[in-house]
């Protein structure tokens, strides 16, 4: 008993440490919580809402593509989203693609389905130069490249606030420094890089209510459009997500049955060993 | 069945007999995996050696197939991995298997290692067996680190930069060694190429050391939960079919967990930053290594001196080589060591705390009851305890602890509780 | 399950009959499941080596025939191989048609090697059927061999204005790829 006590006393300082795992970290400069919502592609059985993703592509094409590249996507990929081959050919043919002809001259030709999405800028340096020094990130993987990516982008698109209309009290709530100044060409977004000198995003408010007109007449207020474009970007981040989950259900079911059989076999084999 | 051991096997097939006479691989397999006398009282913790073996094979097979589509060049590496995920048939599956397989390989190996610690599997006559295991762990860490660089994302690049810079702490030659490791003046194309080459080579070196590890185990025989040696056939069972089926069942259960992560949370162990292509001009806000390095990373950061930190970090693994001589107890199994048993779990928790500290920013704090405690101090305390456990506690415990009485034999320990039940 | 394992224990090693039958069935079923699982696990690794989606996307190409003058030929790349597209002159067509087909090494009618109504367009895969070299004769100024078609410099195979082998070691005529006329000035190969 005495030994047990001695053990306990020696171990005490260490036992305190794991208890510390539970209290929240004293976080500095964490901004507002991301908007709470559910997307069709979440959860082990979630799928991409094709209609929403197609509308999201329309938003990308008409709005985002002016600044943001999606260098990992090809026009042919859109067929996986349910667009017809003819539609994809039409979309591809709308852009002019740089190529080299038979005699080595640089030419521009209409795009083909096998071409990658056309980039708005020839390279990162040009993109940065045209956007006040901050190159707009490539959107191919944006949902995977940010923590809690889908909600983050969804919130970010709706997180613009007119800085000049903020009261001093609101500024204090965001934890802004006394000498906080929003530079020319920067915009205030409550979800972007929170901090004393944070919330400064180079991108101007990209979407507002009713900005994009859908052919199918779907709702085009800001939250609906944000959801649509996030659905498209989530699909683009991982085009095989549905196949992954589908395969996963089969594999796990198979392994569960197989584990049951292996357990029965093990029991039978061991029956004469005890 | 156990009485069959030692008899030469009689093979039915003439072809097998012909080969076996000239190259006795069948006799070898029969002796080492068929009738090999294995203690009858293994619990499921003993299955993790076999599970680790399955993961090693999984990593090699998926890796070879991935290499068929991977391009080790700074301009193409990131895109080639994404091409594997997007365009190569079933490439996403194999890439996710490889990516998560690394984590599950480490999970299996860590459990295997802690099992060895608890049951004193490193003690005489298994010291070399244990040290070969530590060599495997070191090789795995090197392989995993270089593998993580290959996708050439932001974490890949900055992880490689930070870890290779550790060597700059070496006095006098530090900078030259780092330049040598890089093959240039920063982590760049030559670095990526050599990491790919070595990442492909080292797993086969691991296989070689695993063979030695198993060979050493077959000389001394397996340890067992009681830690006492088998005294006769009544204490053992032939490896096949008893442990083939038991380990087989354990492997399948382990694969269920593996599959759940591969298919439903493939990015759980990863970092979002690695989905951004490497940018040598911009460091991510918070660089963290993969989870299996976190305890060691915490040790590194807890020492205020650069060289001291590096030594402490490598020492944390190096000390494992000395474990057989640091533990002075004559009793192997923690089951019969009332004090050690507790300190073992304290040590496990200590490692978890180190991992948790390593995963947080260097300047993070936690608040308990309104007090702000810097994580750095918790990391220092845990680092102290890590070394204290090995250097002070284990030598001391062997002297002051009074072990419980050992059972007369393995068979006794298995059959008596069963009869009582 | 508990009762059956007890039965196996009491029967001991000499057990035959019902217990053993069920035991065998269990072993066979588990073995079969393991085999199915292994096969299913191997499949992705084999399928992985098939052409990727971006490769397949380039499996068929469209080529504009605009600007290829009569008598000229161009070379385009298709599935990693050259395809020769020759705009034949009436004389070249005539020469190809005047041959006694039965006396050729690989007898084939010229009309079958071009598409009806597009007799002036000859489209062949530019890989010598001998050992895979690229025959000369497409670009202007290159030798076209003794039969005014193509000449393979590697081992001296001569092809005529229909791409048929006439003399030399090559066993077969130049292969005609699958192609269709999308319209009068565009073809799709593959």
Structure description:
Chain A folds into three domains: 1-73 and 117-239, Cytochrome Bc1 Complex, Chain D, domain 2, CATH 1.10.760.10; 84-115, no CATH class; 241-274. Chain A is mostly helical. Chain A contains nine helices and four strands; from the N terminus they run αααββααααββαα. In chain B, the strands form two sheets. In chain B, strands 1-2 form a two-stranded antiparallel ribbon. In chain B, 43% of the residues are buried. Chain C folds into two domains: 1-50; 55-189, Rieske Iron-sulfur Protein. In chain C, the strands form three sheets. A three-stranded antiparallel β-sheet of chain C has the order 1-9-8, with no helix packed on it. The model of chain C is unreliable at 1-17 (pLDDT under 50). Chains A and B meet through α1 and α9 of A and α4, α5, α10, α13 and β3 of B.
Q: What portion of residues of chain A belong to β-strands? A: 5-15%
Based on CA inertia axes, which overall geometry of chain B fits?
globular
CATH topology of the largest domain in chain A: Cytochrome Bc1 Complex, Chain D, domain 2
Rg of chain A, rounded, reads 26 Å
- Reading the helices and strands of chain A in chain order gives HHHEEHHHHEEHH
| Helical segment count of chain A | 9
Structure summary, number of beta strands of chain B: 4
Question: Secondary-structure element sequence of chain B?
Answer: HHEHHHHHHHEHHHHEEHH
Q: Please give the number of β-strands of chain A.
A: 4
Which secondary-structure class do the elements of chain A indicate? mainly alpha
**Quaternary organization:** heterotrimer
**What is the CATH first-level class name of the largest domain in chain A?**
Mainly Alpha
Nearest-integer average pLDDT of chain B: 93
Which structural class do the helices and strands of chain B define? mainly alpha
């Amino acid at each position: 008993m005495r030994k047990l006590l001695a053990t306990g006393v020696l171990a005490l300082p260490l036992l305190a440490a794991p208890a510390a795992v539970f209290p929240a970290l004293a976080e500095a400069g964490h901004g507002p919580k991301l908007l709470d919502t559910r997307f069709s592609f979440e959860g082990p059985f979630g799928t991409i809402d094709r209609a929403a993703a197609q509308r999201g592509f329309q938003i990308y094409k008409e709005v985002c593509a002016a600044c943001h590249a999606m260098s990992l996507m090809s026009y042919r990929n859109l067929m996986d989203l349910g667009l017809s081959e003819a539609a994809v050919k039409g979309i591809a043919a709308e852009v002019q693609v740089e190529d080299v002809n038979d005699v080595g001259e640089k030419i521009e030709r209409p795009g083909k389905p096998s071409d990658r999405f056309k980039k708005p800028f020839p390279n990162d340096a040009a993109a940065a130069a045209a956007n006040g020094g901050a190159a707009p990130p490539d959107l191919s993987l944006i949902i995977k490249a940010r923590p809690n990516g889908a909600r983050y982008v969804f919130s970010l698109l709706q997180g613009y606030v007119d800085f000049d209309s903020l009261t001093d009290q609101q500024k204090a709530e965001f934890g802004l420094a006394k000498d906080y100044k929003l530079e020319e060409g920067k915009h205030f977004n409550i979800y972007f890089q929170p901090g004393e000198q944070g919330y400064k995003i180079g991108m101007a408010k990209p979407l507002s209510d009713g900005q994009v007109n859908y052919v199918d007449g779907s709702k085009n207020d800001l939250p609906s459009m944000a959801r649509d474009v996030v659905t498209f970007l989530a699909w683009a981040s991982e085009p095989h997500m549905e196949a992954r989950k589908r395969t996963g259900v089969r594999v796990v079911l198979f392994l569960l049955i197989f584990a049951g059989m292996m357990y029965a076999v093990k029991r039978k084999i061991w029956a004469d060993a005890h | 069945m156990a009485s069959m051991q030692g008899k030469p096997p009689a093979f039915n097939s003439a072809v097998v007999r012909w080969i076996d006479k000239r190259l006795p691989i069948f006799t070898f397999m029969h002796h080492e995996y068929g009738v090999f006398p294995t203690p009858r009282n293994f619990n499921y913790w003993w299955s993790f050696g076999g599970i680790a073996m399955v993961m090693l094979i999984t990593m090699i097979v998926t890796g070879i197939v991935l290499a068929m589509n991977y391009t080790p060049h700074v301009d193409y590496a990131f895109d080639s991995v994404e091409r594997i995920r997007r365009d190569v048939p079933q490439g996403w599956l194999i890439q996710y298997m490889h990516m998560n397989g690394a984590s599950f390989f480490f999970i299996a190996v860590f459990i295997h290692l802690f099992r060895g610690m608890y049951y004193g599997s490193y003690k005489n006559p298994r010291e070399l067996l244990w040290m070969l295991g530590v060599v495997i762990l070191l090789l795995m860490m090197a392989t995993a680190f270089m593998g993580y660089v290959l996708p050439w994302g932001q974490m890949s690049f900055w992880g490689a930069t930070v870890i290779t810079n550790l060597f700059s702490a070496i006095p006098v030659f530090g900078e030259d060694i780092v330049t040598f490791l890089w093959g240039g003046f920063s982590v760049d194309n030559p670095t990526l190429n050599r990491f790919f080459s070595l990442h492909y080579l080292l797993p086969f070196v691991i296989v070689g050391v695993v063979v030695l590890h198993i060979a050493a185990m077959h000389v001394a025989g397996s340890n067992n939960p009681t830690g006492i040696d088998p005294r006769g056939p009544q204490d053992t069972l032939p490896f096949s079919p008893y442990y083939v089926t038991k380990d087989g069942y354990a492997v399948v259960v382990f694969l269920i967990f593996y599959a759940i992560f591969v298919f439903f949370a493939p990015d759980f162990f990863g970092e979002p930053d690695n989905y951004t292509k490497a940018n040598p001009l911009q460091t991510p806000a918070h660089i963290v290594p993969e989870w299996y390095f976190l305890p060691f990373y915490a040790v590194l950061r807890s020492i205020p001196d650069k060289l001291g930190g590096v030594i402490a970090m490598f020492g944390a693994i190096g000390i494992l080589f000395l474990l057989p001589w640091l533990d002075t107890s004559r009793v192997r199994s923690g089951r019969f060591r009332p004090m050690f048993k507790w300190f073992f779990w304290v040590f496990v928790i200590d490692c978890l705390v180190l991992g948790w500290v390593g995963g947080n920013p260097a300047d993070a704090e936690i608040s308990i009851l309104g007090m702000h405690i810097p994580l750095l101090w918790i990391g220092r305390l845990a680092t102290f305890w890590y070394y204290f456990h090995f250097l002070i506690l284990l030598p001391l415990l062997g002297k002051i602890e009074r072990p419980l009485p050992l059972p007369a034999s393995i068979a006794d320990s298995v059959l008596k509780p069963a009869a009582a039940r | 399950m508990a009762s059956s394992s007890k039965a196996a224990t009491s029967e001991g090693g000499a057990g035959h009959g019902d217990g053993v039958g069920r035991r065998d069935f269990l072993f066979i079923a588990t073995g079969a499941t393991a085999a199915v699982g292994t096969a299913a696990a191997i499949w992705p690794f084999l399928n992985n080596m098939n052409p990727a989606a971006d490769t397949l996307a380039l499996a068929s190409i469209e080529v504009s025939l605009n600007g290829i003058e009569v008598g000229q030929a161009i070379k385009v790349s298709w599935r990693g191989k050259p395809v020769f597209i020759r705009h034949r002159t009436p004389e070249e067509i005539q020469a190809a048609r005047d041959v006694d087909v039965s006396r050729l090494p690989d007898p084939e009618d010229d009309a079958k090697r071009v598409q009806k109504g597009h007799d002036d367009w000859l489209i062949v895969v530019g890989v010598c059927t001998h050992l895979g070299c690229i025959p000369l004769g497409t670009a202007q100024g290159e030798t076209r061999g003794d039969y005014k078609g193509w000449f393979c410099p590697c081992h001296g195979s001569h092809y005529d204005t229909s791409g048929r082998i006439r003399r030399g070691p090559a066993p077969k005529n130049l292969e005609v790829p699958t192609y269709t006329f999308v319209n009068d000035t565009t073809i799709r190969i593959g």
